[in-house]
Amino acid sequence: EKEKEKEKEKEKEKEMGDSSKEEAAKKKKNYALEQAYLHSARQGRMDGLISALTQGIDPHVTDSKQRNIAHQLAFYLPASSSNNKNNKMFLKEIFYLFETHKIDVNAGDYQGDTPLHLCARKGNVPVITHLLKFGAKMDITNHEQFNPFHVAAECNSSDALKLMYHSNPKIMATEGPDGWSSLHFACSGEALLSVVVLLDRGADASRPDNDGNTPLHISCIQA
Asked: Which residues contact 24 (CB under 8 A, 6 or more apart)?
């Protein structure tokens, strides 16, 4: 009787061990698939994205920085290459994929940055154009209370500023932390091109922040 019980226990342990190994192998495979999926978005490889999706990958998967494939596209696709023929086609196809799988283009990463924040920082106008058409919001703020327009102003992304202003002129009136305007951010970043774009569109150079500092004061402090 005792021998039978021991055999049953051994069989049970073996089954549990086999199950654990299978689970570990499955997790390893899923992780590799997730990495391939995210890497394909970074590299502009539609075939890699489709391959991962056909193998059952969760299209909403994120990396360790809580960035989905829209973030990967925004952060890694070089602005200089976004206008070439292949990448134009890729952008068209990947945004169709976003629509099909309901990818959230307004999701925040670990810093609260949306894909539009990341694009604004790099001045990637072709991707910004697609994001805006797809419903990306310009008034979402990150953990520092910057919206994408503020980011573009501070980073001297003048073409991105023009595009976002054209999409919604009211965005220029939004305030950041401490009552800073977009012009405050541009002056803080010593972003001359941004300053010119904002002034040409009616930004108020005499508007004070919560401490009474105008954009000119900020420029003097930075000098």
From this structure: none
Give the predicted TM-score (pTM) of the model: 0.85
The domain locations on the chain are 1-76+85-137, 145-222
Residue 202, pLDDT score: 96
The angle that helices 125-134 and 85-101 make with each other, rounded to 10 degrees, is 30
Tokens of residue 218, six digits: 């900020």
Per CATH, domain 1-76+85-137 is 3.30.413.10: no
Query: Angle at which helices 158-167 and 115-122 pack, to 10 degrees?
Result: 130
Q: How far is CA 65 from the centre of its chain?
A: 10
How far from 86 is each of 44, 45, 145, 211, CA to CA, in Å?
Answer: 9, 10, 36, 49
Residues 6+ apart with CB under 8 A from 185: 146, 150, 151, 153, 154, 176, 191, 194
Contact call for residues 130 and 91 (beta carbons, < 8 A): yes
Per-residue pLDDT, averaged over 142-169, amounts to 97
Structure tokens that stand for 215 in this block: 């954009």
User: Does residue 168 register a pLDDT over 80?
Assistant: yes
CA-to-CA distance for 89 and 159, rounded, in angstroms? 22
Give the pair of three-digit tokens for residue 109: 């990463």
Domain at 145-222: CATH code: 1.25.40.20
63/42 Cα distance (integer angstroms): 12
Q: In degrees, to the nearest 5, what angle opens at C-alpha 149 toward C-alphas 168 and 69?
A: 100
Under a CB-based contact definition with an 8 Å cutoff, are residues 33 and 52 in contact? yes
Average pLDDT over residues 215-220: 89
